[in-house]
Amino acid sequence: MSAHRPRSEDFGAQLSFDRSTAGRRAVDVPSWDGEQTPLPDAHLLRDAVRLPELSQGGLVRYYTALSALNYGIDSGTYPLGSCTMKYNPKVDDLVASLPGFATAHPQAAEEDAQGTLRTLLELRRGLAEITGLPAVSLAPAAGAHGELAGVLMITRALEDRGELETRRRILVPDSAHGTNPATAAMAGFTVTQIPTGPDGSLDRATIERELDETVAAMMVTVPNTLGLWENGIEEVADLIHEAGAYLYGDGANLNAIMGRVRYGDLGFDVVHLNLHKSFSTPHGGGGPGAGPVCCSEELAPYLPTPVLEEDAAGLVRLTAPERSIGRLQQFHGNIGVLIRAYAYMRALGLAGLRAVSGQAVLNANYLRVLMHGHYDLPYDRPVLHEVVFSGTRQRREYGVRTYDIAKRLIDHGFHPPTVYFPLIVEEALMLEPTETEPPEAIEALAEALIAIAGESAEDPETLHGAPWTAPLGRLDEATAARRPVLRWPDGKDGG
Amino acid sequence: MSAHRPRSEDFGAQLSFDRSTAGRRAVDVPSWDGEQTPLPDAHLLRDAVRLPELSQGGLVRYYTALSALNYGIDSGTYPLGSCTMKYNPKVDDLVASLPGFATAHPQAAEEDAQGTLRTLLELRRGLAEITGLPAVSLAPAAGAHGELAGVLMITRALEDRGELETRRRILVPDSAHGTNPATAAMAGFTVTQIPTGPDGSLDRATIERELDETVAAMMVTVPNTLGLWENGIEEVADLIHEAGAYLYGDGANLNAIMGRVRYGDLGFDVVHLNLHKSFSTPHGGGGPGAGPVCCSEELAPYLPTPVLEEDAAGLVRLTAPERSIGRLQQFHGNIGVLIRAYAYMRALGLAGLRAVSGQAVLNANYLRVLMHGHYDLPYDRPVLHEVVFSGTRQRREYGVRTYDIAKRLIDHGFHPPTVYFPLIVEEALMLEPTETEPPEAIEALAEALIAIAGESAEDPETLHGAPWTAPLGRLDEATAARRPVLRWPDGKDGG
Amino acid sequence: MLERVGVEDLDALFADLPAAYRDPSIDLPAQLTEPELIALLEERAAANADPGRPNFLGAGAYRRSIPSIAAHLTSRSEFVTAYTPYQPEISQGTLQTAFEYQSVVCELTGMDVSNTGLYDVASATAEACLLAARATRRGAVALLEPIHPGTADVVRTYARGAGIRVDLVTSGDEATEEHACLVAQQPDFLGTIVDLEPLAEAAHAAGALFVTVADPFALGLLRSPGDAGADIVTGEGRDLAGAPAYGGPSVGLFAARQQYLRQMPGRIVGRTKELEAPPDGGEPRTGYVLTLQAREQFIRRERATSNVSTAQALIALAFTVTVQALGPRGLREAAELCYQRAHAAAARVAALPGFAVPERGPWFQEFLVRGSVPAATLAAALAERGVTAGLDVSDRPEPEARDALLFAVTEATPDAHVAALIAALTEIGGAA
Amino acid sequence: MLERVGVEDLDALFADLPAAYRDPSIDLPAQLTEPELIALLEERAAANADPGRPNFLGAGAYRRSIPSIAAHLTSRSEFVTAYTPYQPEISQGTLQTAFEYQSVVCELTGMDVSNTGLYDVASATAEACLLAARATRRGAVALLEPIHPGTADVVRTYARGAGIRVDLVTSGDEATEEHACLVAQQPDFLGTIVDLEPLAEAAHAAGALFVTVADPFALGLLRSPGDAGADIVTGEGRDLAGAPAYGGPSVGLFAARQQYLRQMPGRIVGRTKELEAPPDGGEPRTGYVLTLQAREQFIRRERATSNVSTAQALIALAFTVTVQALGPRGLREAAELCYQRAHAAAARVAALPGFAVPERGPWFQEFLVRGSVPAATLAAALAERGVTAGLDVSDRPEPEARDALLFAVTEATPDAHVAALIAALTEIGGAA
Ligand SMILES: Cc1ncc(COP(=O)(O)O)c(C=O)c1O
Ligand SMILES: Cc1ncc(COP(=O)(O)O)c(C=O)c1O
After folding, report:
1. Which in A236, D46, D107, D235 has the greatest CB count within 10 A?
2. Distance (Å, rounded) from C-alpha A493 to C-alpha B241?
3. What gap in Å lies between CA B221 and CA B207, rounded to an integer?
4. Chain C residues lying within 8 Å of B63, measured CB to CB
């Protein structure tokens, strides 16, 4: 074969900096023919920045070739659990980039940005309806940012109640996403872990035991990261409120319940949403996202700045809640993402949103039944948006780890699921097909995973070496962390 | 290996029609809530069209996957001789799609399209300057369309001279592009072929012998398809004019001489240009192009409609030359392509255009010297924009055809050159690197071709089977032509 | 490089060029950087009519709702920066999409075979006439009025070269043994829906081919020309590919019955298989190639069926994506919406005192409007009121066109534009 | 599917949800088809200020000339529709471009290491303060005025949670042993170029870290903060990624000296090799991976260096393409052009009777304008004349800011806009 592939090049070894040739340019800059103002003192100036010099064609070819090494939603099924990788309607990108929106200056007078502000106001109202929580701030740039906002709001509320000194603990489920405890810590709280019971819901006894006047809040993900409904969450809410604490909701999994149940009705005081997940704004290789925070009237005064209000004259204004925790960004949030989310909401309406959650849940259950028996299913019951299988049997019997199964799935043409999360499931394979995958794709995914289960028995080596057909084989992550090379030129970082 | 690639799918076997599922939709259509007008009589209406039904995500994935099977300029070097595959500046696409240009209606009053018309007028003036021919029509949609325009103009001129009955022949070099004789025939002329001399220029004796009162015109490509200057073309022009015939110029190879010599100065009466080549408008997988026709004052009255004129009030108008051959398109031409060409011209200016032709010629010669000795070079002298090697030695000595060499070049990561054209070069390999390929790319291309020359001696089988690393291997073109399947569903075409 | 090539400077590379004519003085505008270029062309674009201005021009170019994915997909640089797929192994993107295009065009037109597209509807129709002349060995063609004048003009341009006479006729009966084909436009130039079947019969009775010039969007609703007896169908694909862009780039649909396959102009893509199984096993895979090239200029030269080489591939792709995104129901719904909106608008105009909407039969998206003043005066009055009127067709022979403007209203004409039209007409109507 | 899953309808899938709260009534606006959606949002976009209106706002967001290839490349769906590159074998596009980004940020800032970007400049600066507090175990940070109020506000938001005191200081000498870091903005909030070195010395003398909040575009001209002694550099990348879009999405640059690497927030990409040679032979190839993840929330949970997960990868990519397209000379030329154009405009304003341009030292692209009327009045007068004035900074403590507006003029401000400003001021100046 190798004779057939004369040039096996090491593409990654050649960065733009290595492809540079002195004197080449991708664009020219207009020259200044006006009067020359002398530059500031030399000690304030720099000598040239070291940047690559490529022709425009060279730069375009380089980044175009790089894009081809990526797998995205437009490439195929991407069942990355908890991340809700659904198809992103192209029209949302189109409308978000309309010149009127794109050129709006963040310091513009409100009168000069009514088109943007009106759109955000209607999004805010929609999110309030969907969550059943009346007050919303669109400021957070992502889910974790929304979490920080929510927990800081609770901090301020406790401060005003004079209980901040005493309430230093936040209860966090052992199945929670890492951002939950990390956020609690950032806000200065200590984290008490709440175990998950055999039914996949929180252990009520522990909650009752832990709940006391030292507890500031409990953070609960609904539906939880096992893809299951948190049974009796509405009762837990009462317990928490009786104990004088707040119930924080991680709404990253809204996709499962949009239009079917509302956080506010269940007793949540504050919740953040991940619009880049549930509302289908593209994930962009890791952002931008948007993590609006929605809350009760009680917590509304603490919302991050800005919030949107319509004044008597029908003008939409940016205002600061009187006891606001302050700003989370220099300006108003990831506006372009929020406009996409608004377009998504308008294209669906209520019926559409309910159809989304219904299909998303149906797809997850379809995948569950198709795979049933081929992998362990620690919480063996109907699921909502995602299903978490376990590779323990494969590891125990054939020495094949979930890691190997995930890598092998790449050879079968799919993006792997989320693995080793939630932490309470050994060798976890967390699969979220989302509503935009058609039945045949879910069947193909199940077939591939079943085939891999077979391979783990017959041909574990093929799995240990996988992927075989990706742009690259397995990478040496250990050395990457031990001797970090983090920038061009190598070594300069002294790592 | 095959174990490594579990799913070797036959992507091409599944058309959108085969991926269809009843009930799916990529977009919705607004419903009509106004008063219903009854539809026309049933016998005027149709039953549903058979079209695929895919979700938007499904359709996007399908066409995105298809795009990945293409090799374009943005993928790498594309030395397709005579086609001038140069990098296309992205800004040209951007400006051509500005809403003001995009929404202009072809029937709009000239007052309502001055932005477009002014731009076209300045392009027209630029082309007149560059070709040295004062009159221009931008109507032709491609090179061959421009040729038809030019030859029909000659027809009309002869008609007005009362010589159309007698002048029925057009002289065409044996090295000419196929569109030249085809065009002459379409315009009702018979073609007399003029041989190319050993120096790569036309055989003067034959021209002199053939030139008489039965000759309407001679079509000459300058520089010619060997990439060589047509020696003494200015004298040939005199001979032709003395004989009462016209000299037609195929300007598809303008890239070699932009800013260095002008068709008009050499005595050409009419010439067409290929803006999608010389002026870098993207080739789009086979168009759209633009083939403006430029001519002398004598032929100006015959130009195709419309031509652009600025009136006394400074308004740009579309007019019909008084003896125009008529329209070539329902409207005004491939405007979007012409705007791109204008942007290209403005981004370069005269110095830039001269730099383009200079670098294009330097690159072709660099490739020539690098490959020299490894392949036969029938016309062994400095070239202009392209160089035509021959694979005869490889065929004679190792049974490797130019076809095999071209296919093997794919494995080396390049698009193959134009092959078996011009017809006068056996086993022709026609290489045009263009000015936008950097030296390292030309060196890599030469190395690959030299390596292949080596392989043809050592390992001809690898060449006969090539390509090995492309999305597909060699296709059965014979059967495709013998039992044509030209549409979904198979067979319906009865082929 | 210069050294390796053996010259001191670039100019030395041009030694073969006649010294007398080398390096002429050429007067071109100054070079612009990218920001300057964008600024200039934004200024130019702004010198066209405001894109938001109510506009009722049709007459060959119609405002359509193009699904956003059409522009998204056709802007993929792999499609944009490739050329004619001479090397199928690395061109399946272009080839397979062209095969999709051929399939869609055949379905819409009811024809057996399609090429990958010609320059535009008019040149495609001209090529159809040349094909008919070759096939019938006859020296004249008949164009049925009302036909788009631009189409008729292009047919004349091509016909003159081939020495073919072009007759304008007003009924199918005028088709004679002299005619290679009868050409009818659907809907016709004045917007009327034509009953094609009798015309096909008349043409065939005269031994002539029947050519239909059809609006592919209207074919979402109207009987397929093939079903009605057409031998060749041409059409304009631009409106379903994107914005009008002052008329181009366009794409000329060209489809025909099986027996004319080897007479067709333009590129044709066919389906085939790999010669060998892929190196890593499995069956030979399906692929697409340019085929039946023996018809074409680069092989046949002066005996080719046409001289066409580069055509409009990228526009054909956008057309294909739009039609497939709409799908069978969407295309029908969009065509019906267009029909309903146009008729509702016409009814509102007809209801205005001082205005008439003369009908020539059932129509699709274009209607004639006659006021109490000459057409040009009415158009000017509308222009004053910020409305671009329909095309002035008062010079047409058809009685209904007397003093009339031809208005187009489609599924994509905003309600606000229709409202602006009615308001303006009301004002004028009173005035006149 | 329903059958296979064993339910009659979709609603049955939600049986676990408490019946009392299931299927609440929710009031959302009606569903829109794509054409309706586009029409609505075009209307909304048009309700913002006309993009062509002369606008001199800066104060944290600046109009830049973005090379057209930045939008072209970042719209490639392979970049747009992927997520955080957890699977490096099929995510090299995102990973290698992130490595390019880290390299570019290090070069611009003069730092040793960079992460892949945070939410925006303000949150990045807040994270810098938290890092400094962790590294120095100190409980306060000092922000040097004039600093962007939005940045100061975000630092306060983050600091409150961590129990850190925030002091606004007006000179480096105010940095004390209590301070974990001294934070200075370059250019400062009023546009003045800051001499960083003495500030770095003052901070270090107090045992504090020195943090610079720098405009990366200005760093094409100004001394690199690293060279001047900074320990951490933050900045805003949005302006070099695309249009301001009302402030977001943005991307917060965060770079630091090597010794703070393991304290850094956010994702970091590292270079490595394949574990095995490729199946068809050759050496193990180079690849990129997310690394040093032991710092991150999904592993460290409550002991993580930050809670950040999703950040702004796509904006970071656009930023990288712009900077690399400009290249070393282009970036410098663009920064100098910006400097020259701004100073030329300021000079024209200063020359007008009734207007002053109070200077606080050398400046880059923003200047203060004081008229003979209160700032708000002047801004209103300009607005009446179709010009959007610079930000009203008359409430600032700095004497030069008294009654002043802060005008920004960049390399991308059209001449016509400056002309419009001068014309308007001339008119007003006379009037006042
Ligand atoms: C359940 C859950 N919570 C929180 C987050 C954090 O959201 P983000 O990545 O937008 O910060 C995520 C996703 O990463 C999540 O899946
Ligand atoms: C020398 C020459 N003449 C004419 C043509 C025809 O131009 P077009 O393909 O644009 O019709 C070409 C390219 O195909 C060419 O290379």
Report:
1. D235
2. 73
3. 15
4. 73, 76, 97, 321
- Atom 7 of ligand 2: nearest residue by CA position: B143
C149-162 vs C121-136: helix crossing angle, rounded to 10? 40
For residue B467, whether the previous peptide bond is cis, meaning omega lies within 30 degrees of 0, is yes
Question: Does residue C129 contact residue C211 with C-beta atoms inside 8 Å?
Answer: yes
A 10 A CB-CB count for C245 gives: 26
Taking CA–CA distances from B66, the nearest residue in chain A reads A75
Identify any residues that bridge with A136 across adjacent strands, giving them in sequence order: A294
**How close is the Cα of B273 to the center of ligand 2, in Å?**
9
Question: For residues A279 and A290, what is the distance between their CA atoms, to the nearest angstrom?
Answer: 10
- Which run of H or E residues covers position D142? strand D140-144
The C-alpha atoms of residue D64 and residue D57 are separated, in whole angstroms, by 13
DSSP code of residue D329: H
Q: Is D308 exposed, middle or buried (0-12, 13-18, 19+ CB in 10 A)?
A: buried
Q: How far apart are alpha carbons C161 and D10 in whole angstroms?
A: 67
| pLDDT tens sequence across A192-211 | 999 999 999 999 999 999 99
Structure tokens at C383: 């222009």
Chain A adjacent subunits, 3+ CB pairs under 8 A: B, C, D
Q: Which residues of C touch A66 (CB under 8 A)?
A: none
Contacts of D67 in chain C (CB under 8 A): 34
User: In which band, very low, low, confident or very high, does the pLDDT at A3 lie, cut at 50, 70 and 90?
Assistant: low
Nearest to B364 by CA among B431, B443, B276, B421: B431
- Residue A4 DSSP label: G
CA distance to A21, A211, A259, B79, B425, per residue, from A237 (Å): 64, 12, 21, 70, 86
Mutate to test the interface with C, among D65, D66, D76, D333 (most CBs of C within 10 A): D65
Q: How far apart are CA A356 and CA A86, in angstroms?
A: 10
Q: Which of D11, D55, D119, D262 to mutate to test the interface with A (most CBs of A within 10 A)?
A: D119
CA angle in degrees (0–180, nearest 5) for D362-D365-D366: 85
DSSP A187-203: TT-EEEEEPBPTTSSB-
Average pLDDT, chain C: 96
Cross-chain residue pair A451–B3, CB shorter than 8 Å: no
Task: Using pLDDT thresholds of 50, 70 and 90, give the confidence band for residue C299.
Answer: confident
Residue recorded with tokens 């199964």: A405
DSSP A383: -
Count CB neighbours of B39 within 10 A. 14
Q: Residue C248 in contact with residue B329, Cβ under 8 Å?
A: yes
Contact call for residues A95 and A266 (beta carbons, < 8 A)? no
Q: Which of D335, D432, D418, D340 is closest to D381 using CA atoms? A: D432
CB-based contact D406:D349 (threshold 8 Å): no
Token pair for D282: 């050759």
What are φ and ψ of residue B316, in 5° steps? -85, 130
* CA–CA gap between residue C340 and residue C363 (Å, rounded): 11
Nearest ligand, CA B278: 2
State pLDDT tens for residues D124-134.
Answer: 999 999 999 99
Over the stretch B123-145, which tens digit does the pLDDT of each residue have? 999 999 999 999 999 999 999 99
Residue C162, burial from CB neighbour count under 10 angstroms (0-12, 13-18, 19+): middle
Q: Per-residue pLDDT tens for A296-321?
A: 999 999 999 999 999 999 999 999 99
| Beta carbon of B306 within 6 Å of any ligand 2 atom | no
Are the C-beta atoms of residues C65 and D34 closer than 8 Å to each other? yes
Residue D234 backbone dihedrals phi, psi, to 5 degrees: -115, 170
* For the CA of B255, the nearest ligand: 2
